[in-house]
Amino acid sequence: MERRRFVPKHFTLILTVSIVLFIACVLASLAFGARWLSLSELAEGLKSLHSDTVTANILEKRWLRTIFGLCCGAALGIAGVLMQSVTRNPLADPSILGVNTGAALFVVCGMAFLRISTPQEYIWLALSGAMFTAAFVFGIGSMGRGGATPLKLVLAGAATTAALSSLITAVMIPRTFVMNQFRFWQVGSVGAGTWDSLLLLLPFLAVGALAAIFCAPGLNALALGDEAARGLGVRTGWLRLIAAFAGVVLCGASTAVAGPISFVGLLATHVIRLLLGPDLRFLIPMSALSGAVILTGSDVIGRIIGSPGELEVGVVTAFVGAPILILLAMKAKVRSI
Amino acid sequence: MIMKITLSHTITAETVEWIRAGRISRRRRWLLVTGILAFLAFALCAAMLLLGNTIYPVRDVLAVLAGEEIKGASFAIGTIRLPRMLAGLFAGFAFGISGYIFQTMMRNPLANPNVIGITSGSSAAAVFCIIILESSRTVTSIASVIAGLVTSLLIYVLSRGKASFSIGRMILVGIGIQAMCNSMITYLMLVGEEHNLPAAVRWLTGSLNGVRMDELPSLIVTCLILVPLICMFNRPLMMLELGEQTATSLGVKTDPVRVLLIISAVILAAIATAITGPIASVAFLAGPIAVRLVGIGAANSIPAGLVGAVLVLAGDLIGQFAFTAKFPVGIITGIIGAPYLLFLLVKLNRRGDF
User: Fold this and answer.
1) Do A329 and B169 touch (CB under 8 A)?
2) B98 pLDDT higher than 90
């Protein structure tokens, strides 16, 4: 008799490919930019990282940027999986649900009215903004018959995003100092990261990722429906709360340090789910990996297209990620929308 | 048997009377509301010309409009305020009427050029023409009309899916297209090294700042041609609102009418977008407000257009004078429109439409 397979099909192959892509992205992110480094220069620079040559200096900046991008991408990837499984909704993503914009609004208000200017202060505002918005959007989206259908949630998210981004502009326009600060925060994306803000992100990333892995088996059961999950001994209320909280913390923290970046969670999760199937114990770590690859890759693309400057990574991810939303909408049955 | 017929006969006579009375009262209400809206739009236009850093007397304004040269006033009114007023009036009218046509034909308030992202397609094309190609105004207008038509066709084709067409799917596809167009606009802003906020705000939310007189003819001419055309199709449009089958059985050739009206609506929205940017929420708000004011059972294209114009002009005046800072009109209409969208969602959700 054939043994039941616990590891998804082709898992080793997919893992290997992901790791290869990961390394390729890291190398590309180190090599490309305003000044392109050749492989030999790269090797040279990596050997003497703390010396004072031009290459070493460039590499130090790019290391920071790369690690920063990887961490944010991983956070957004996990946040995407968590939100999708908590809401049992294939279209959930921090940016589509407006959570990013909520975080951004709070940060802008903090800049304008409380005169804050450091990432340490942004992060708490961004987190509370993300939580309020998530609760609000989910509240509106789950009203009425049938609970939170994908279409209702997306529409509530889109409407909330529209309202909040108008408010952001309205707060920003009369205050030139906020506009400059905010533009750096928003445009800077992964390029503006410092070691300090990276250190700030890491604890949140660690807590969120641990909570996600801890929740994975329960969320697997939840995918069968609330009653089935309860029958299997899962305390659904708590599980939902913890998983949603972890998701919001992850995307709020990454928004605070990197600015609003859209569609990474959606893209990462769907690519991996297509390849691996729905088992969250594999989906969560792999989405983190693919989120990191997607964000770093998009950042490299943005630097190549926008050279000698750079194109915000959020712009690239929106352009790459939006077609996924369209594809999902096309595939979905009318009923389930 | 005979009694039955006479009974139904008397009821018919009464019914005819009743229907006629209803028709007359609706007609009266339509005229009244349209008159008030037109007056309001006119008053706002006058305010747009009169108000500003210096407030000129009515006599001077009229003199400038008649073509006289008055030092200072000629520049302020003729070069700055008049184009701004005309752009607001006609773009608002175009957005309002095009939103109303979409909403009526799709029988869903969410289906309109704003929400499903047709205006963002036009906007992206306009930015591309202006920044990259540095093309003339005419070319820009034509390109944004073509982009608007292509975007709506694309949204329609993509949202047909494997099974049947659904509004829900169309809205989702539209949100995706909108995200792509907006990211393209941001990219173009960056490439053109005109990454300044005023330009970005104009092309992402819409604004009347810096409209010039030579941009306006295309918008005005298009409005003057298409609005009468749309009004000629008021009746079929009302029948389409009753549903495909009812309209067909009432003698409407649904497909040609639908295509014609959609194309006119897209052209209107696109040509207005090429000049002012996609002024947020106007196309989405105008229809429902007009229907609420006039009541159902009347052709509301003209009232909807007027509501659109009033919204844009009032929004621009509020943005210019209500606060210490000057806000572009799109921000004001966006802040008004988004809560209404949320309210609408709550209402639709309660009713269980989704």
Assistant:
1) yes
2) yes
Range of the domain at B292: 40-347
Query: Is residue A152 over pLDDT 70?
Result: yes
Q: At what angle do helices B216-232 and B234-241 cross, to 10 degrees?
A: 70
**Of B116, B169, B209, B329, which to mutate for an interface test with A (greatest number of A Cβ within 10 Å)?**
B169
Domain annotation covers residue B10 = no
For A60-72, what is the mean pLDDT? 86
The pTM assigned to this predicted structure is 0.82
CB of B131 less than 8 A from some CB of A: no
CA nearest B345 in A: which residue?
A156
On chain A, the residues whose CB falls within 8 A of the CB of B182 are 318
CA distance A267 to chain B (A): 13
In this predicted structure, which of A26-35, A72-81, B75-84 has the lowest mean pLDDT? A26-35
Per residue in A185-233, pLDDT tens? 665 467 667 788 888 889 999 999 999 998 888 888 888 887 888 888 8
The predicted structure's pLDDT at residue B307: 94
Give chain B's radius of gyration (CA, Å). 22
The predicted structure's pLDDT at residue B163: 61
Domain membership of residue B333 (yes or no) is yes
Residue with more model confidence, B40 or B196: B40
ipTM, 2 decimals? 0.78
Task: Tell whether omega for the bond before A308 is within 30 degrees of 0, i.e. cis.
Answer: yes
Coil vs helix vs strand at A173:
coil
- Residue B169's H or E segment, with its range, is helix B167-191
Task: With respect to residue B3, please indicate whether it lies within any of the assigned structural domains.
Answer: no
Contact B176/A149, CB-based, under 8 Å? no
Interface membership of B342 toward A (CB under 8 Å): yes
Task: Determine the distance in angstroms separating the CA of B295 from the nearest CA of chain A, rounded to an integer.
Answer: 26
Of A162, A34, A225, the C-alpha closest to B345 is: A162
- CA A262-A310-A73 angle, to 5 degrees, is 35
- Give residues 245 to 304 of A whose Cβ lies within 8 Å of B: 262-263
Banded pLDDT at A1 (limits 50, 70, 90): very low
CB contact under 8 A, B179 and A167: no
d(CA A256, CA A182): 11
Give every CB contact of residue A191 below 8 A, 6+ residues apart in sequence: A65, A299, A310
**Test mutation, A108, A326, A337, chain B, max B CBs within 10 A:** A326
Rounded Cα–Cα distance for residues B44 and A302 (Å): 45
Domains identified in chain B, total number: 1
B16 assigned to some structural domain:
no
Structural contact between residues B169 and A334, judged by C-beta atoms closer than 8 angstroms: yes
What is the CATH classification number for the domain harbouring B156?
1.10.3470.10
